[in-house]
Amino acid sequence: MTGTAAPEATPQQFTFEQMNLQVGMRLQVITHRALRPAQNFSNVIGWVKDEYLIIKIPFEQGAPIALGEGDKLTLRVFSGVNVCSFNAIVERIFGRPLLYAHVTFPKQIQGTSLRMAMRVKVDIPAQVKTAAGFEQVGFLVNLSVSGALMHTKKPIPEEVEPVAVQFTLLTEPDKRQVIITAKASIRNVNAAEPWPDGRPRYAYGMQFIDLDPAHYMMLQNLTYQALITDRQKIV
Q1: How many other β-carbons are positioned within 10 Å of the β-carbon of residue 164?
Q2: What dihedral do alpha carbons 168, 121, 39, 72 form, nearest 10°?
Q3: CB-based contacts of 64: which residues, under 8 Å, 6+ apart?
Q4: How far apart, in whole angstroms, are the C-alpha atoms of residue 80 and residue 20?
Q5: Which residues contact 195 (CB under 8 A, 6 or more apart)?
Q6: Where does the chain show beta strands of DSSP type E?
Q7: Residue 38's closest CA among 225, 229, 173, 234?
Q8: pLDDT in 10s for each residue of the chain, 235 residues
Q9: What is the 3-state secondary structure (H, E, C) of 35-63?
Q10: How many of the other CB atoms lie within 10 Å of CB of 197?
């Protein structure tokens, strides 16, 4: 796991069926009413094929955002290993207590595949444990569905294999803390730039083994969030 940048995935045309949209699926809603587009999150309620989609009106700070008929939207949805994006226009607003909207059915859908190697820059405290009782603390500096790069102040014994890596992620949108314990294999070790106090820094590239499906989805969502909100975090 090096710090080299991953090449951009080339967007491709997707059909509606290939997008694999599901009722209840979370999607990003980007409005264009102001000079700077605003991003919020919503859920799919349903659709009538080739006519309209039904989406929940997004909330911001506990209140529904302002939407009007004729507003232009960009909708993005994360489905499996793809991020799909399409433009839509608000056709009809249903106010309280329903709070949903009809938007135009997607005609042109752009999709980008999330590669297994796509990693996100992070700064997450982590701990390595072994069956023999060895423990070491450090920080994850990048993370993906396939593995992580961890920096430590002390070396991990070479004979220790595999290891258990424990760290905490925040779920979206409720910001709930979830402790993840993943079995991992150490694939490489390198000397990195020393810590600010001058002590040596050890960099361990780790590959996850049999990651829990729920944790896999959380890491996919982490990559998705970085891809659509802050591409500078993608490495």
Answers
A1: 14
A2: -140
A3: 57, 58, 99
A4: 9
A5: 153, 201
A6: 12-14, 26-31, 38-48, 52-56, 59-60, 63-64, 72-79, 82-94, 100-104, 109-113, 120-129, 135-143, 147-152, 163-170, 177-192, 201-209
A7: 229
A8: 333 333 445 678 999 998 888 898 888 899 998 778 888 889 999 999 999 999 999 998 889 999 999 999 999 887 666 788 999 999 999 999 999 999 999 999 998 776 556 789 999 999 999 888 889 999 999 998 889 999 998 888 876 678 999 999 987 656 789 999 999 999 888 888 888 888 899 999 999 998 888 888 788 878 877 776 676 777 7
A9: CCCEEEEEEEEEEECCCEEEEECCEECCE
A10: 6
96: tokens are: 């309280």
Tally Cβ neighbours within 10 Å of residue 130: 16
Under 8 Å between Cβ of 232 and 225 = no
Is this structure's pTM higher than 0.70? no
Report the distance separating Cα 230 and Cα 150, nearest Å.
Answer: 22
Assess whether the previous peptide bond of 162 is cis (omega < 30° from 0).
Answer: yes
Are the beta carbons of 58 and 64 closer than 8 angstroms? yes
Distance between alpha carbon 146 and the CA centroid of its chain, in Å?
A: 13
